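Quick one, tokens below. Sequence please?
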């Protein structure tokens, strides 16, 4: 893992099956910083790919160290992934495993690496899609059955001895680096690492080095230096690291997107044409405005309502919304036998997978309604918050059900996306884009919300994602722009620092706060 000096900047997630297999722990690392800003335009499509760096060099030349130093030098940037080629060793036969344990298997030949899988996973991450990388155990000399889920990287660093060898990999890199190191130093590092971390003997390390590692370096690894954009020393490389980090920061600034202001400040007439007050249009469905429903909203809008009443009627309204949303799911005929021994022709759901995804924390009040209608439903979550400096939405946390994390399941999964209200629509937009990145079909997403602001971002969501169905209980006429002052931890206002916010009117206030506090 990273050294202690970087832990104050990043939340570090280690990718490994066995904690004792420290080599695997150190290789694949996810670093989450202040959040991922929008990576898409108003049409809902990604504007730019992730920035991908390939780092090659001899065994123990310092590739992983260089990758970590780049991360440390970058400072606060969106999510970074360090992905190791070592994860992509091919699955071995019993005979190959025996050879590996006897130090007689050539792990340094290009054929030992599953290059097509490596390229496919890297291509998915570069295109802002999720991927699942294999997990390899050096102690067992075998690829494990489980995989590791990755998503949301703005910067990807792929490192390995063959990182620049395969043309399909080189085509994915925005920056190619070769780490040059003295052969004696590489051997000394390799002996120290393999003895301490992989349980090898010095004799075994030397035998493998002379038999496989050194010949492979001369034949396959060192020649790839000619493809590198920059050659970095394996030690004393501070100047090179600073140059690389400056280049990456410049690339990140050029790829920054200002999104929220474009969806929050549309002309009112355009919004009125898009949401014209009818109970149902192409993809926005409004609950029938019965006296019962109007009574529920009257209680919820009243700031003098007790918290007990607020929670009770929120749960009741959530159930009504989910029941309406269930009408959009496909059903098939089913014949059952009743207790009177009579056949009855009915319906049952005709879907493979269904789950809920809550946009924290305002989507939480809708979860109980979903669980009342689908008692065994799995619910995941997304955390989207506003950047206090730019006003842009930031994706801070992704915890999705397995049926979404794996693309071959996601394509057949229906998702109830839950959020309390749609004002500017920035959070909802980001959440829908995240689901699409995972392979969920647009027409399999049902967005459920209590309130929609007529003059807000709902029209942008409808235009960008015309197949997403939106279920709401009320369309409120107003969206007011205001400012809130930022505060120090001691409670003193910061002079001249404030954040723009948009308030739905008449609205229901901060629904999540009223429900949970």
């Amino acid at each position: 893992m990273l050294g202690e000096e970087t832990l104050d900047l990043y939340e570090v997630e280690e990718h490994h099956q066995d904690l004792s297999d420290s080599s695997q722990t150190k290789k694949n690392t996810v670093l989450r910083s202040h959040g991922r800003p929008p990576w898409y335009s108003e049409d809902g499509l990604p504007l730019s790919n992730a920035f991908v760096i390939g780092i090659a060099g001899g065994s123990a030349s310092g590739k992983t160290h260089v990758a970590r130093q780049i991360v440390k030098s970058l400072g606060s940037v969106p999510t970074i992934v360090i992905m190791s080629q070592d994860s992509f060793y091919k699955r071995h036969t019993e005979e190959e495993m025996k050879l590996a344990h006897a130090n007689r298997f050539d792990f340094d030949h290009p054929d030992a690496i599953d290059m097509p899988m490596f390229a496919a996973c890297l291509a998915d991450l570069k295109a802002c899609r999720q991927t699942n990388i294999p997990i390899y155990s050096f102690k067992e000399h075998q690829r494990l059955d489980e995989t590791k889920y990755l998503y949301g990287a703005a910067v990807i660093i792929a490192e390995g001895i063959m990182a620049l060898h395969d043309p399909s990999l080189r085509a994915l890199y925005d920056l190619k680096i070769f780490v040059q190191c003295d052969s004696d130093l590489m051997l000394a590092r390799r002996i120290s690492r393999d003895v301490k971390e992989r349980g090898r003997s010095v004799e075994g390390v030397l035998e493998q080095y002379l038999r496989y590692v050194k010949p492979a370096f001369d034949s396959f690894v060192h020649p790839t230096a000619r493809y590198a954009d920059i050659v970095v020393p394996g030690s004393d490389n501070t100047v090179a690291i600073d140059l690389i980090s400056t280049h990456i920061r410049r690339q990140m600034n050029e790829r920054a997107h200002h999104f929220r202001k474009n969806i929050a400040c549309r002309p009112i007439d355009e919004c009125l044409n898009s949401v014209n007050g009818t109970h149902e249009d192409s993809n926005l469905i409004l609950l029938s405005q019965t006296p019962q429903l109007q009574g529920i909203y009257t209680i919820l809008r009243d700031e003098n309502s007790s918290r007990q009443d607020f929670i009770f009627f929120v749960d009741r309204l959530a159930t009504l919304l989910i029941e309406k949303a269930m009408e959009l799911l496909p059903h098939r005929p089913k014949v059952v036998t009743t207790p009177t021994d009579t056949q009855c022709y009915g319906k049952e759901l005709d879907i493979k997978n269904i789950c809920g995804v809550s946009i924290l924390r305002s989507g939480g009040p809708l979860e109980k309604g979903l669980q009342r209608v689908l008692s065994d439903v799995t619910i995941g979550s997304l955390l989207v918050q506003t950047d206090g400096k730019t006003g842009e939405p930031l994706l801070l946390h992704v915890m999705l059900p397995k049926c979404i994390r794996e693309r071959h399941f996601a394509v057949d999964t229906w998702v109830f996306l839950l959020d309390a209200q749609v004002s500017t629509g920035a959070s909802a937009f980001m959440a829908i884009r995240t689901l699409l990145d995972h392979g969920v079909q647009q027409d399999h997403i049902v967005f459920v919300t209590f309130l929609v602001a007529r003059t807000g971002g709902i029209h942008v969501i409808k235009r960008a994602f015309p197949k997403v169905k939106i279920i709401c209980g009320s369309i409120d006429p107003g969206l007011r722009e205001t400012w809130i002052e930022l505060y120090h931890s001691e409670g003193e206002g910061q002079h001249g620092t404030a954040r723009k916010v948009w308030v739905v009117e008449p609205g229901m206030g901060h629904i999540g706060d009223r429900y949970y506090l």
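The longest helix spans residues 202-221. The chain has two domains: 4-253, 264-331+343-474+507-516.
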